[in-house]
């Protein structure tokens, strides 16, 4: 955050960091800010979510964890380094970033991020799409491209 001069950053377990506050994730602050939003607007959490969805569209996101062997992990890391898809789940790829794993952003705004754990043979596949069907199609396309061929005849990758 300091290097990028970011104003706010968040992570999946509910912690956020805000410039000028502590440089660590803070779930208590996130909770207090949410409670303040409820108090100031007089709306319920469901009403706030509906308002956000109406303004920005509905999104469906999910994280899948896949585990396998350490040897297979190294093969997948190598595959990720060279994978340059032009489409994913029948949608054109807009950009690919390798800054924090492999993030593929599609022309329609959906995206997928694949990251390997630094401590165990686990990969996390994050997806965000405009429908549950597209989200699942993205997950399947990534699993097909990166994981299915690696451990044929072995234990395989498990979610």
Care to describe what's here?
This protein has 159 residues and is of the alpha+beta class. It has 2 domains: 8-56, no CATH class; 60-147, TATA-Binding Protein (2-Layer Sandwich). Helix content is 35%, strand content 26%. It is built from 4 helices and 8 strands; from the N terminus they run ββααβαβββββα. The protein has helices at residues 27-41, 45-56, 70-82, 132-147, and strands at 8-10, 16-18, 60-67, 87-88, 91-97, 102-106, 111-116, 122-129. The chain has a 6-stranded antiparallel β-sheet, covered by helices on one side. The longest helix is centred in the C-terminal third of the chain and has 16 residues, at 132-147. It is globular, with a radius of gyration of 18 Å. The protein starts with 7 loop residues before the first strand and ends in a 12-residue tail after the last helix.
Secondary-structure blueprint:
Blueprint: E1 8-10, E2 16-18, H1 27-41, H2 45-56, E3 60-67, H3 70-82, E4 87-88, E5 91-97, E6 102-106, E7 111-116, E8 122-129, H4 132-147
Antiparallel strand pairs: 1-2, 3-8, 4-5, 5-6, 6-7, 7-8
Q: What class, by secondary structure content? A: alpha+beta
- The CATH topology annotation of the largest domain reads as TATA-Binding Protein
Q: Write down the overall geometry.
A: globular
Portion of residues within helices: 25-40%
What percentage of amino acids are in beta strands? 25-35%
Q: Main β-sheet, in a few words?
A: 6 strands, antiparallel
Distance between the termini: 32 Å
The beta-strand count equals 8
User: Tell me, what is the CATH class of the largest domain?
Assistant: Alpha Beta
Average pLDDT taken over every residue: 89
Low-confidence stretches: none
């Amino acid at each position: 955050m300091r290097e990028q001069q970011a104003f706010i950053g968040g992570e999946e377990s509910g912690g956020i960091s805000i410039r000028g506050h502590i440089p660590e994730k803070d779930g208590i602050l996130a909770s207090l800010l949410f409670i303040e939003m409820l108090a100031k607007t007089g709306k319920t959490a469901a009403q706030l979510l509906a308002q956000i969805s109406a303004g920005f569209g509905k999104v469906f996101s999910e994280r899948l964890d896949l585990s396998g062997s350490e040897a297979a992990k190294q093969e997948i890391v190598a595959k990720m380094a060279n994978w340059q898809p032009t489409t994913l789940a029948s949608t054109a790829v807009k950009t690919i970033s390798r800054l924090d794993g492999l993030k593929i952003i599609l022309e329609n705004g959906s995206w997928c991020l694949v990251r390997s754990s630094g401590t165990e043979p686990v990969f996390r596949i994050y997806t965000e799409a405009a429908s549950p069907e597209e989200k699942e199609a993205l997950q399947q396309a990534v699993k097909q491209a990166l994981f299915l061929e690696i451990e044929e005849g072995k234990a395989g990758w498990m979610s």
